[in-house]
What we know:
This protein is 29% helix and 18% strand.
Amino acid sequence: MSTPVPGPVRAFPGAEALLRVHAASLPQPDQLAGPFVARLLVAALSSLPAPTVAAFAHAAGTRVRVGDDVSSRPPGAPADADYLRGLPVAADDERAGTPVAGLGRAVEEFSGESLAAVPATGDWTAARLTALLDAVTAVTADGPVGVLAALWTGELVAAGTPVADLDAGVRPGPDWSVAHVVALWGSRDGPGGPLLAVADTYPQLGSPDLGPGLHLQPTDRVAVALGHGGGLVLVGPDRRRDALTAAVGAAGLSPCWWDDPA
């Protein structure tokens, strides 16, 4: 049974599977946004059963903080620290988190190497972001591509902003200001400027037009949010690895991991 794509959005190929897994998986466990989104993409794009979020965290090299930090969750989101048991503890808060390069390795491992994880980083602009997404999400017989985005939420508008307000140029927010990981699943060309559809990791971060955990963001705001030391990871069939890498370069970006400690 297919899941209809909600709202006034042009969905990327493969979005229905992603949204189905997303709806069944919310919310993320505390501190594990990256492993949560990586698991969503493997579950949606791979024929293999995806393991737990904790398994992705272990494989990706996650290091967790001790104690509860309310500011690490959006307003209204309850604590969910059960998954943190058994995960390595960071030496200090600066070293806590999950390397995005590790998420890429986990995606490839848990898909049985059927998926490639290709990074994109550099000097982000709305034009470069749009060019890259247009290139990699075009319909092709080689299979769909999922998009993981590592960004700074303080540059985004409030997730609950209605589409009508965004189309009118209203830009409230943000809900919170943290380094975060989400998935991108579609776009909208509205009168207030181009928008990108986000699958977030908390149901509280949802638009009234799209549903829990789903919202629209101005493309230029997403580009600025990526520019805070973040980037995209393009996840698609391994046979598309070279084409995805070439698309990153053609958009004026670099296909390099920006946080690989190795």
